[in-house]
Structure formats: C-alpha cells, structure tokens
Amino acid sequence: MREFTVGKNDAGQRLDRWLSKTVPLLPAPLMQKYIRLKRIKCNGKGASRDTRLQTGDLLQLYINDEFFELPSEENAYLTITSPKLDILYEDEHLLLVNKPAGMVVHADETGTVNTLINHILAYLYQKREWRPREENSFVPALCNRIDRNTSGIVIAAKTAEALRVMNQKIRDRELEKRYLCVAVGTLSPRNGRLEGILLRDEHKKQVSVYHRPVPGGRTAVTEYRTLAAQNGLSLVECKLLTGRTHQIRAQLADAGCPLLGDGKYGSERVNRQYGRRTQALCSWSLTFRFTTDAGALEYLNGRSWRVPEVDFLSAYFPHISLSDLI
C-alpha cells in the first residue's frame, strides 16, 4: 500500500486523471476495477473515478509495487490488461505461439509496447507463473524471431533451463522449421536449394545476396519445393538450414521470384495488382529433431506442431488445404 497527500498543485483534478499520471504503468481498465473494489481510498473511504481531489486529501492505493516503477521497456507488459495470444502448445517450460502478421516480436524503433514478448510476459504475470520480484534475473524470453509482417510459430521459454537448451538446439540446427509462402513467378528448378552469402545493411535494414565471400557476410542455405503454381504465382514451402535475417525473402527475390506483398524485396506493381500489402510468408511447421541430449526438454523430441490456417493460402490457392501438405 502507498499513501499520498494531495498538494495544492494536484487539487481540483479528477481521481482517475491523477492516478494515470501518478501510476502510469497501471492500465486504465485495471484502474477502474481497483476503484470499483475500493482499493483506491480517499480519506479512508472508497472514491469514484470523478472524485475531485482537495488539498490535504489522503489517498491510499492498494496496488502492487511493480505498478509504481518508472515506465521502461522492461516493464511495459504491465500496461497490457488482456494479453492476446494464439497458443498452439504450453507446458511448464515452453510456449509455442502463432504470431499474427503485423505484430513485432520485440520493441523496435517505434517504441510500441504491443509486442509479442510483452503479451507473453503479461500472460505469464497474470497467471502468476512469473513473478518478476521473485526471479531476481530471469525473464521469459523468445527463442526465435520472425519479421513483423511474417506470421507463424514463435517459441518462448518460460524457464532458464528451457531457454538454455532451446538456444543450443537452435544453434545446433536440431529444429526443423518450415515456411509456407507465395512467390511471384515460377522457380527453376521447381524444387531445389538456394545458397548464398547475406550481407546486412543496418541503415536500410535489409540484406543483399552475394554468390562469393564478402567481408561481414554470412552463409544462408534454404531448401524449397514448389507445391502449386497458377495465375503467375507459386505456392512454395521453404526449409531453413540456416536462420538469417530476411533469408527467405532475400534469397527468393535473388532467384527472380520475390514474395508476393514484400515491399522491401518485391515488386510494388505486382503487389498492387494482387492487392497484397504484406509478404505472404508464414512459419507454418515446427518439429523438434534432437540428436543430442536435450535435458529437461527431451520429452519434446520428435514432436511437431503446425498452425491451423494460413490466410494467403485460402486467398490465392483456395483448392489447397493445410491438411493436403502434411
């Protein structure tokens, strides 16, 4: 519980306006709930949201201590009252979440708090599975990332052991991640392997593909197979053998078949023609294929998960269902 005495500069304000400034991490819906439950008291009594404060009023706030911290990227999850997550799987160690296109996984230069990790932290905090004041240092974290406008499976570790093991398995390439996408044109050959060196331009926030070694470049390898082709588009499944930034987007564009809707590597004219504003790319399938000891996560070996639907599949290849691809 925290107590505040209203000074002359705060006199005349409504209680809810004063609360929003004094406790900025407290979400508005939760504030209203606390007022209804009389966890916000004025001079020892419950008060309404439109109570006008007077000089000398004693306010008692029965609110968790973490809401009184200064706003930062680390505690932004507190502002999320109703986490929105499409959970494919959850146990004591992991969460597998189907991220929608348009949501960033971590905070970026826009400063948004509406990130996937913040929704996950809010979800675990509200379930009381994660108590930040009791953890000292560990914070649940994402094990893999996908672009803002890419949809699909993201792995989140709920425990330090899970994070350690999963990060090692990703480095050792013991996870099989498959992506579904719509490419413009037809790849030749229809099934194959794309290899190259990717060099990231931090200023432009995009990568270039080279077919020779370049300073700072990183090897990228993608296996692909064409599942269908019609109306100038191809439905392609890609399997990542490396996990580089924009790997599929850049390599397919380099092969002459950029992703439909890709504003960075694709064709604006074609994107307008098909009415697609974001890249048609989904991390649709994940399989754990451990070849070495996985410790606390050994029980996951051999298990697979897939997203229940992919929006661009029904839009451009309505005669094909995800069950046809399994």
Notes on the protein architecture:
With 326 residues, the chain is α+β, with helices and mostly antiparallel strands. Helices cover 21% and strands 28% of the residues. It contains 9 helices and 15 strands. The chain has helices at residues 15-22, 28-36, 116-126, 132-135, 160-171, 247-254, 268-274, 311-316, 322-325, and strands at 2-5, 40-42, 45-46, 58-61, 87-90, 94-99, 141-142, 151-157, 175-184, 191-201, 206-210, 218-230, 233-240, 281-288, 304-306. Strands 5, 6, 7, 8, 9, 10, 11, 12, 13, 14 and 15 form an 11-stranded mixed beta sheet that branches. Strand 7 and strand 8 (151-157) form a beta hairpin. The chain is elongated. It starts with a strand and ends with a helix.
Number of helices: 9
- Topology, number of strands: 15
The profile of the biggest β sheet is: 11 strands, mixed
- Mean pLDDT across all residues, rounded? 92
Strand content: 25-35%
Pattern of helices and strands: EHHEEEEEHHEEHEEEEEHHEEHH
Radius of gyration: 25 Å
Which class do the helix and strand fractions yield? alpha+beta
Q: What best-fitting shape do the alpha-carbon axes yield?
A: elongated
How many angstroms separate the termini?
A: 55 Å
- Ranges where pLDDT stays below 50 over 5 or more residues in a row are none
The share of residues in helices is: 10-25%
Feature tags:
326 residues; alpha+beta; four-stranded antiparallel β-sheet; elongated
Layout of SSEs?
Layout: E1 2-5, H1 15-22, H2 28-36, E2 40-42, E3 45-46, E4 58-61, E5 87-90, E6 94-99, H3 116-126, H4 132-135, E7 141-142, E8 151-157, H5 160-171, E9 175-184, E10 191-201, E11 206-210, E12 218-230, E13 233-240, H6 247-254, H7 268-274, E14 281-288, E15 304-306, H8 311-316, H9 322-325
Parallel strand pairs: 8-14
Antiparallel strand pairs: 1-4, 2-3, 2-4, 5-6, 6-8, 7-8, 9-13, 9-14, 10-11, 10-12, 12-13, 14-15
